[in-house]
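Researcher: Here's the sequence for the chain we discussed earlier.
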Amino acid sequence: MTQSNNRSERHRGPVTLRRDALSSGTADQALLDSAGRPDWKVRDSWRTLRILSEFVEGFDTLSELPPAVSVFGSARSAPDSPECELAQRLGAALARAGYAVITGGGPGVMEAANRGCTEAGGLSVGLGIELPFEQGMNEWVDMGIDFRYFFVRKTMFVKYAQAFVVLPGGMGTMDELFEALTLVQTEKVTRFPVVMMGTAYWSGLLSWMRDTMLANGKINAVDLDLIVCTDDVDEAVEHISHADKTLAAEQQAIRSSGGIAD
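Model: Thanks. This is the structure I predict for it:
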């Protein structure tokens, strides 16, 4: 989709809006921005049904996915950039290891990861989001869902993935990275590998976390162990696969002893 078409078309869940039907806001904005909303008591009550429908659609569509890995990175990266080349190799390696690849469905790093997965014979998934600057689903997505609400989409990224891989990106990538780390740190999810790829890009952030956050007692040393940072695709996939196998073995041991595995 060209940039000029982006300005004249927007996807709002299953709905496509063009030309005079376009509105200036998004569903997330209507939900979260309380300024000038005298009717919020009435409209927000009905809006919960739309939110529920997005959860139902996501759960129903993704429930039969094979083991999957969510891959994040910048939509602004050029196709010939180092991170896109890395993402494409990563997507292919994950597919060969038996994983589906889940991305935000957009261009840049997301498209590269989807392409690598699809070309290697894996299942490529895109979870799109309604934005003022519509991106559209990239052509390498085999299964795509467009969401209105960020928090519903973020639930799907975590619920149906065995790991996160984070490549160079901007605000959205940082959001997903720290969302994952927070969930693991607080044990809302367990044995959930978080891999950062692109050591040169992430080194400053990791140094700040170690030299400022850790040094000031805002995190524990063990929290930094939640992250593996590498430029090696094989190392990243092996780390994910090892965590997967370890968890499966532990669950099997619990079942064999008569306990109940989560």
